[in-house]
Amino acid sequence: MFKAAGRDGGSGGSGGRTTKAVGDEAEARALAYLQAQGLALVARNYRLAGGPRQRGAEIDLICRERDGTLVFVEVRARRGSGHGGAAASVGFAKQQRIVRAAQHFLLRFDRLPPCRFDVVAIDGGQVSWLRGAFDA
């Protein structure tokens, strides 16, 4: 059976590493960047199960700013900036899944903290932090 390179760890330009390994590396790099900016990690890879008619959802990183703002972070990495780059790959459907997972995460709070949705885009090794990248 033929499998497309890049989705199963084939030679899609990632040096033979699996897609998961590449994603884990990008998340680790994004987390280190955010921590250097003063954010504290609250949760990593927060998952919400899907159902028969709804896809599951995941938030790559949940961090807290010094002022208490809860930051839900989507991490995207691309080898280059073609096709709009990493940030442009966070489309409306993905945003809605992140918002749904964030709503579920927030159920644990008696009083809701201020929240924000950010994207950390890694294009060809260049890290960009887009604060307030989209709204709920």
TrEMBL record:
Residues 1-20 are annotated as: Disordered. It comes from the Bacteria. It holds the Pfam family UPF0102. The lineage of its organism: Bacteria, Pseudomonadati, Pseudomonadota, Betaproteobacteria, Burkholderiales. Gene3D superfamilies: 3.40.1350.10. InterPro entries: Restrct_endonuc-II-like (IPR011335), tRNA_endonuc-like_dom_sf (IPR011856), UPF0102_YraN-like (IPR003509). Belongs to the UPF0102 family. It comes from Pseudaquabacterium inlustre. This is UPF0102 protein AACH10_16195. Residues 7-16 have a biased composition (Gly residues).
